[in-house]
Specification:
CATH superfamily: Vaccinia Virus protein VP39
Protein name: Ribosomal RNA small subunit methyltransferase G
EC number: 2.1.1.-
Largest sheet: 7 strands, mixed
CATH class: Alpha Beta
Strand order of the largest sheet: 3-2-1-4-5-7-6
Keywords: Cytoplasm, Methyltransferase, rRNA processing, S-adenosyl-L-methionine, Transferase
Strand content: 15-25%
Organism: Eubacterium ventriosum
GO molecular function: rRNA (guanine-N7-)-methyltransferase activity
CATH architecture: 3-Layer(aba) Sandwich
Number of domains: 1
Order of helices and strands: HHHEHEHEHEHEHEEH
CATH topology: Rossmann fold
Length: 238
C-alpha cells in the first residue's frame, strides 16, 4: 500500500477525511523529517509506512477521545520533531498551536516545516516547561495541552497542567501505563488543580499496537509555587 493510501485508510478509521492538499503537507513533512534526520537525531523511525502509522496517525489518535473541534488553543509540550502538534495542525487548521521544546535546533527544523507547509497560527517556543509555564503569556492560556513526551505521569503533569486554563484538558499519550503510575500521579494532579477523568486504551490503525491516553480536567487554578524550578519535577515528582 502506498503512503497516501495508508494515510487515508488510517485516518478514515479515526473518522477523519483528508484532502489532497493535506496529503501533500504530510508528504512534505515526511521528506523534511527524513532529510533533516540525516544530520540531526529527530526520530529512529524512518520507513514511510512506519512514520505514517507511528507518528502521523498516532498523533491524531487523540480524536478518538476528545473532540478537537471544541478546542481553540493548544500547546504541545516537549514536541520534539513536531508530534503530535504538526499532524494535529494539518488536520485541524482552525487551532492556534504552540510547540514547546527545550532544544533550539529541533525548533529550527519545525520553523522550516511551518514555512514550507504554509501553516498559520502556529508558533514555536524555546525553553523548559518549568520556566515557560511561569510566564504570564503562557500560564493558564490554553484549553488543551497534549504531550507525547516520555516521562512519569506525575512529572509530566507538573510540566503541563500549569499551561491549561480552568475547564481545559491535559491529554498524555502513553505507550503503556501501570495502574500504579496513575495512582501515584492522582495526588500530584490534584495538587496542580486537575482531576483524572479518563484512562483509555485505543488501537492504532494499520498496526498491532495500542496507545493509552490519560485525560485530565483542569478543575482549579494551579498554585503559584508550581511548576517548581527546572529539573525538580523529574528528580522529585510530587
Amino acid at each position: 500500500m502506498d503512503k497516501e493510501n495508508l494515510l487515508v485508510k488510517g485516518l478514515s478509521e479515526l473518522g477523519l477525511t483528508i484532502t489532497e492538499e493535506q496529503i501533500e503537507k504530510f508528504d512534505k513533512y515526511y521528506e523534511m523529517l527524513i532529510e533533516t534526520n540525516k544530520v540531526m537525531n529527530l526520530t529512529s523511525i524512518t520507513e514511510y509506512d512506519e512514520v505514517i502509522i507511528k507518528h502521523f496517525i498516532d498523533s491524531l489518535l487523540v480524536v478518538n477521545i476528545f473532540n478537537i473541534n471544541q478546542s481553540k488553543k493548544m500547546i504541545d509540550v516537549g514536541t520534539g520533531a513536531g508530534f503530535p502538534g504538526i499532524p494535529i495542525k494539518i488536520m485541524f487548521p482552525h487551532l492556534h498551536i504552540t510547540l514547546l521544546d527545550s532544544l533550539n535546533k529541533r525548533l529550527n527544523f519545525l520553523n522550516n516545516v511551518i514555512d514550507e507547509l504554509g501553516l498559520e497560527s502556529i508558533e514555536t517556543v524555546h525553553g523548559r516547561a518549568e520556566d515557560i509555564a511561569r510566564k504570564e503569556e503562557f500560564r493558564e492560556q490554553y484549553d488543551l495541552c497534549v504531550s507525547r513526551a516520555v516521562a512519569n505521569l506525575s512529572t509530566l503533569s507538573e510540566y503541563c497542567i500549569p499551561f491549561i486554563a480552568k475547564n481545559g484538558k491535559f491529554i498524555s499519550y502513553k505507550s503503556s501505563i501501570s495502574s500504579e503510575e496513575i495512582q501515584n500521579a492522582k495526588s500530584a494532579i490534584k495538587i496542580l488543580g486537575g482531576a483524572v477523568v479518563e484512562e483509555k486504551t485505543v488501537h492504532l490503525p494499520c498496526s498491532d499496537m495500542d496507545r493509552t491516553f490519560v485525560v485530565v480536567n483542569k478543575t482549579n487554578n494551579t498554585g503559584k509555587k508550581y511548576p517548581r524550578k527546572a529539573g525538580t519535577p523529574s528528580k522529585e515528582p510530587l
